[in-house]
Design brief:
- By secondary structure, this protein is of the alpha+beta class.
- It has 4 domains: 4-71, 3-Layer(aba) Sandwich (MutS, DNA mismatch repair protein, domain I), CATH 3.40.1170; 74-160, Alpha-Beta Plaits (2-Layer Sandwich); 168-223, DNA polymerase, domain 1 (Orthogonal Bundle), CATH 1.10.150; 236-342, 2-Layer Sandwich (Dna Ligase, domain 1).
- Helices cover 39% and strands 21% of the residues.
- The chain has a 4-stranded antiparallel β-sheet with strand order 8-11-9-10, covered by helices on one side. The protein has a 3-stranded mixed β-sheet with strand order 2-1-3, sandwiched between helices. Strands 4-5 form a two-stranded antiparallel sheet.
- β9 and β10 (294-305) form a beta hairpin.
- The radius of gyration is 23 Å and the shape is globular.
- The relative contact order is 0.09.
Length: 353
């Protein structure tokens, strides 16, 4: 999807169409605090982007054009569910990456359509016609290239990368456009004289692996259009973890407030596991402060559990080991449970018999 959150807000309120729309809390009403969740393409022309301090967006965008809207995740999840239902009308091999992004394997699809391009065009049109939202797609023979294609011609883009065109296409791309290549890796690649896909293609695989370890292996593959990962359909059988996290504006500065949110998360996780007859063996917490420093800690339970109380006890103890984050203010808290075992027995109510 193209600028998904901002597009949903614009569709809901067309008066925002010609404004520089930023999704996030207005720092002018929040002591200068806040972070850009996302923004529309007008705001991006001024240099605004996701994860930027919101106060910087205020400085970059003319006051007459700038509009802040707090994120409405309930609405975004609802619209995302509609889009995913359109995808499942085509194939059940849908791998969701986020609310606004997914991979589809349409090799064998429900519509009997042999052309992946025609399927993508039909899906794009349906999203536009029924929901009033723009989307972009990439069609290729693997996930990495499909992702590259979907980003290549936004907004409302359509990119097809054929096998005999892949190496040339990748050669033209800046290394910053390669998915998974973050700022630190970019800096290291630049130090090696690597600025484009073509540069990367000239480097021996063993050099990349020695320098970047596992990441180097994937860089070597991706440079030549190789990605062996299958599309993993969204299903409970494939779930490796269930979690809940949230960003807070304003930030949290007290332990009691953090623990209240953790308790709420653990209750939600218990409900999700019981729906699936799952028991988790590991609890993971994630904490991020106002400086975007992030810590993740995990604990193995003494035995598999689906109890919110077991999850909370572990999550609380794990948080106490990262409580120094309170000094700068905590802006994100997450709790995840993983290492599942499925209950082999079904609980029954004897009074039903």
């Amino acid at each position: 999807m193209d600028a998904f959150y901002a597009s949903v807000e614009t569709q809901r309120n067309p008066e925002l169409k010609n404004k520089a729309l930023v999704i996030g809390q207005d720092p002018r009403n929040n002591g200068g605090h806040g972070v850009v969740a996302t923004c529309n393409y007008i705001a991006r022309k001024y240099g605004v982007h996701s994860a930027m301090p919101a106060i910087k967006a205020v400085k970059l965008i003319p006051k007459s054009e700038l509009v802040f809207i707090r994120p409405d995740f309930k609405k975004y999840r609802s619209v995302s569910a509609e889009i995913h239902s359109f995808m499942h009308n085509i194939t059940d091999k849908v791998e969701s990456i986020a609310l606004d992004e997914a991979y589809l394997d349409v090799t064998h699809n429900k519509l009997g359509q042999k052309s992946a391009v025609q399927l993508a065009i039909s899906l794009q049109r349906r999203i536009r016609t029924e929901l009033g939202l723009n989307s972009s797609f990439g069609v290729s023979y693997n996930k990495f290239l499909a992702k590259m294609g979907s980003e290549y011609a936004k907004p409302f883009g359509r990119t097809v990368i054929l096998p005999d065109e892949a190496k040339q296409f990748l050669g033209m791309q800046k290394i910053e456009n390669f998915p998974g290549v973050g700022p630190k890796t970019q800096e290291q690649l630049h130090e090696m004289g690597i600025y484009t896909g073509a540069d990367l293609q000239q480097v021996d695989d063993f050099v990349l692996i020695k320098k970047f370890k596992k990441m180097g292996y994937f860089l070597a593959q991706h440079a030549h259009g190789i990605d062996l990962r299958p599309v993993i359909a969204d299903s409970d059988a494939n779930r490796k973890s269930i979690g809940m996290e949230r960003t807070y504006e304003p930030a949290i500065y007290t332990r009691d407030e953090v623990l209240t949110h953790i308790r709420h998360y653990c209750k939600h996780l218990e409900e999700e596991l019981k729906k699936r007859n799952f028991f988790a063996q590991t609890v993971v917490i994630k904490v991020r402060d106002n400086d975007f420093d992030t810590v993740t800690k995990r604990r193995k339970l003494t035995k598999p559990s689906n109890s919110q109380y077991d999850f909370y006890d572990s999550a609380r103890d794990l948080f106490d080991k990262a409580s120094n984050f309170l000094e700068k203010g905590i802006r994100l808290i997450g709790v995840t449970v993983t290492d599942f075992k499925q209950d082999e027995y079904q609980a029954i109510n004897l009074f039903d018999y």
